[in-house]
Design a protein that fits this description.
With 386 residues, the protein is an alpha+beta fold. It is built from 17 helices and 6 strands. Strand 1 and strand 2 form a beta hairpin.
Amino acid sequence: MQKDFHYYATYCAAVLAGYSHEESMRICTSAQFVDLCSRNLLVKLKAPRSAATTQLTMEMANARTDLLGLQDITRIWASFHFLPYDLQAEKSGCTRLYRNKYRLICRPNGDLVESTVELAKGNGPEAAGIAMHVLADTWAHSWFAGTPSLVINNTDDYFFELLPDGSKRKIRFRHSTSKPDDLEAGIYTNSLFQPEESAIMNLGHGRAGHLPDYSFMKYEYLPAWAGYRVIVKDNPEDYLHAFAQMVEAMKYLRGTRETFQKNRYDWEEVEPWREEIETILRKRQPDACADWKALGEKLSGCEMEEFEIESREAEYLAAEGKEKDETFLGQFILAALRQKSMVTASIYRSGSRLAGISVDFTEKGFQGIRDFRILTERRRGAGKHD
């Protein structure tokens, strides 16, 4: 997904869930910041580097693809952008390594979605925003995995857009990042084919380009893992479900729902606006920010501020010591560390080492990456938010 959904549509969902304009702005700012919180930025801020929620283009170009490098990549992308659907999934006639990669395939309504939303409960709007980013991406990024893998993420030459008039058009891919996608001609940019199994080009939906991120797109293709079975991806319908599920989830986070359960959507709250939302989702445009912004301002009666993070960075840099934890970025960092720790531990407990080793500090004391020590300290009573 892109800024139009993670920022503006998330704001709309937060308002419908009952949050104030100010709370909704913090939530959607956090949701969008997931796509920007890189290790390079955290180094500049002298913040915990393990709180990185993305890797930007230059970082990916220099990313290591040895064992430790691949584990680092998987911790980031599986935790925040390609949440695994079923870590206990079985696949017959394959190696353990293939099965573990197969288990990282992202889909909506897995158990980890419930864990993600429950983890955000009581931890403020920044945690809510991260959870909404993760939840929304399970819909957009379904059928891809957050680890570099040719056997999972590669696509076949069979790739067709299903047009509104019922016809279908073959999608043509190119590798020139300097040219924008040509929606009218059906020409899109994707990652360059690399035959190495763990090449960085085989991460996530790179081989499908930005198609999963366009809300209007409906397409069919042959993913590498599906045994030549055609998969149909209906983004307008999936994005609508993502929106209704965000409303449901945020009502739980606000306390107006006792529980959050997968496969549950707040259609009642969405219904008065459904036609307008579907019109935005189905409109053929690479960027729907203006349309979602207009809807958000209609819903709240307030003007939405443009996304910016510089003031949040200045606030964090100006704070001293433990006061940093109470800033917007401080709360975001804590929530990011919680989410990454939860997902990494879940992958490790499934018997996989693709995201590294996880140690339960409550049983064996603190071991591992120093950045996560802050969570153990707060859980022992040093912080008011845990």
